[in-house]
Amino acid sequence: MAAPVVKMLVFDGDHAAAGRWYYIALVLLVVVQSVPRLARRLANLFPAVRENSYKRKGPVNPLSLLIHRATYLQLPFWPYYSTRTVLFVVAYVTLSAVFAAGSIQLRTSDAGYPRYGWLAMTNLCVAVLFALRNSPLYYIFCLPFERTIEFHKWFGAGAVIFAWLHGGLYLRQWVEQDVVDFQFNYRPRLKFGPATASVLGLMILASLGPVRRKFWEAFYYMHVSLFLVAFILVNRHTDYALPYTLPPLMLWSVDRISRFVRGWLRPITMSAVSYPGGDVTRILVRQRHFWGRAYNAGQYVFINVPRAGLAEWHPASIVTAAPPEAPVSPTASFPQKLVAAICGGNGGDSNAEYELIFKNVGKFTRRLAEASVGGQKLTARVDGPYGAWDVVADSYGLVVLIAGGIGVTPIMSVLQTVLNNSAQQQRDGSASSTSLQNKSRPRVVELVWAVTNIEHVSWFTGELSAARDMGARVRIYVTRSEMRNDHTVAVAGEEGAPPFEVEFGRSDLVCVCEDIKNSHPDMDAAVGVCGPASMVHSTRDAVRRCSDRNSIWHLHSEAFDL
């Protein structure tokens, strides 16, 4: 009796074509994910003219409201994925299953086994594309590094699964046929297959959250080294790999060279000050340029300080407000506006002076704090800026910023930028109009900051006092402190000024946001949150609940992760 014929669901008999189309499909899958973000960025080119009251002119369309609220749904259990992530994972798994499905014969035929090798190689190469800090996807599809790295993780996991499935099926069949030694001796290139799968598996183990966070430097250099080893091994394993591996390898090389030029060949001098108690270290950096564009609010850099670690690069959020010319001037050319809208840059002065804050929790930050004793000058190298906020706060009359602990650093940059821009618009409106009713109304800005100890407020006493004086409402929640309320005066800023609103205990962010909404009805809101994952989940739920037919709330979120 003849053995059953192996048939694949798609591209039967042509695994190379399946690999090519799978490659295209994965990239398109990410492109679809970027459409809402790209649309929001391009909308900044032609901002809607809002009335001075920032009130909505009419109710929200019910269908639009339903879709909007659905985007902020999340799994009620760990890992609490958002709707966007769930849809991506479902689409990715379905797409992979379609290309992998077939009538595989475990004992009689290995005709379908190569398909999984092609899928593993495709996932590996696409994963590299989404691991670049200066990826072309950023400039084409408005996908910054902190977003593309999520896709990198999923595609990397897919590469490992398909690599082990590819090799495991072959090995199972050869064991049953007792031809394992024969196969590896007769076909020497086969040995590079298990080696590749082992390297990929080791990369996944080293990338697990607890390992990655505790041994960040070891993880990073191991990850890069093993990635290069995997590319060499897969090219030794098969002649078909080069057209797949060469393009991402070239892009990775360009990315590394550009970062080398911007970092190692452009050293800077900075001054650092360690706060009393040794909790954080604040550094002032003056940098000549960021390749022709000024930094934007909420962005971050990677910094290397040889005195603290010769080869160690650490991420740090920019605390300082964006340059005064952000966003791009209305007199800028259309190409300048287009680049700024997509990339989050601006047309301001290319010279940059800004501040960074490190929390002293690791070896690098502790060594940095020790080296900065006395405020002495230190040599450093900076790579960046990176990142772009989904929500452009200047387009909203109500801005709500929520932070947990050291997550307040990017929030503080956004807070100062929004207040500065609002004040500038107030001045421009006053200068261009003599009628009181035609003057631009100030934005409503609310800051909610949760800290474990009230002494942490001293990190930003100056900025918080200035924000309060410019009309922002500052609420501080002290989650683990036995201090009394008389400490509120100590953090209030100048003598005689009203204290910040300080409450002891955990904040109910849903109640806080609903209180803000009730105080400012019929106003669309931009919400930014940076903090632990639990805080991001609570804020997402609050944004969904606060969106109704009278006002729409939009969210940009950043959770603590490396």
UniProtKB/TrEMBL annotation:
Which residue spans traverse the membrane? 20-39, 86-104, 116-134, 154-171, 192-212, 218-234
The answer to whether UniProt assigns keyword Transmembrane to this entry is yes
What is a single cellular component term in the Gene Ontology annotation? plasma membrane
Cited PANTHER family: FERRIC REDUCTION OXIDASE 6-RELATED, NADPH OXIDASE
- Pfam families of this UniProt entry? FAD_binding_8, Ferric_reduct, NAD_binding_6
- GO terms classed as biological process: reductive iron assimilation
Q: Which residues form the FAD-binding FR-type domain?
A: 244-392
Q: Where in the cell is it found?
A: Membrane
Q: How does it sit in the membrane?
A: Multi-pass membrane protein
- Read off the CDD domains from this record: NOX_Duox_like_FAD_NADP
What is the organism field in this record? Geranomyces variabilis
Keywords, comma-separated and alphabetical? Electron transport, Ion transport, Membrane, Oxidoreductase, Transmembrane, Transmembrane helix, Transport
Source taxon at top rank: Eukaryota
GO MF term set: ferric-chelate reductase activity; superoxide-generating NAD(P)H oxidase activity
Record-given protein name: FAD-binding FR-type domain-containing protein
**Phosphoprotein is among the record's keywords:** no
